[in-house]
Amino acid sequence: MLRRLLDGTSVELMMYSDVKNSSSIKSKLMSGKLDCAVFDRHLVMEVFQVMVAAQMAYQRYSTGKAACRTMHAEVLYCLSAMKSISNVFATFGLDGSQRELLIVVINPHKTIVDEIQRSIDGKEVSDIERSLSTGYDEARIKEVYKISDTELHAGPLLDAVLSRMASKSFL
């Protein structure tokens, strides 16, 4: 699924289920052989949430205000409400056992996308939006973002998550 940031920069989203080699993917990510962000898809409710994180990361990276060394790592960082980079990777990143992955590539080149697709031993999900909207772990999201049931009386869970993502830099 190809999307665009505000300035027109392309963002490729891919999702896989039944992944059998997530530990191999993690090794390739850590060694720099794969240039992408890989998420635990159960912490993502909508494509919009990922696009907000991608826009924030692109902006921070472009202005020299990034907390991480790569733009794709910054996407993971911006998706979270945490300031500790190691906690962000432990919570949102790949631990090597996930069987469902959400992948983001900013400014994708065909060779990078092809390498990612060749590297993953799993089934590509065609309807990412539907899969995200029905397959997230609400209890875990509320725990990770520290959202109470009382807060949800004022608005939907996605709004609370986006607020946490946006306000991290002010805390």
TrEMBL record:
<dbReference type="InterPro" id="IPR036504">
    <property type="entry name" value="CGI121/TPRKB_sf"/>
</dbReference>
<keyword id="KW-0539">Nucleus</keyword>
<dbReference type="GO" id="GO:0005829">
    <property type="term" value="C:cytosol"/>
</dbReference>
<protein>
    <recommendedName>
        <fullName>EKC/KEOPS complex subunit CGI121</fullName>
    </recommendedName>
</protein>
<comment type="similarity">
    <text>Belongs to the CGI121/TPRKB family.</text>
</comment>
<dbReference type="Pfam" id="PF08617">
    <property type="entry name" value="CGI-121"/>
</dbReference>
<dbReference type="GO" id="GO:0005634">
    <property type="term" value="C:nucleus"/>
</dbReference>
<dbReference type="InterPro" id="IPR013926">
    <property type="entry name" value="CGI121/TPRKB"/>
</dbReference>
<dbReference type="GO" id="GO:0002949">
    <property type="term" value="P:tRNA threonylcarbamoyladenosine modification"/>
</dbReference>
<keyword id="KW-0819">tRNA processing</keyword>
<dbReference type="GO" id="GO:0000408">
    <property type="term" value="C:EKC/KEOPS complex"/>
</dbReference>
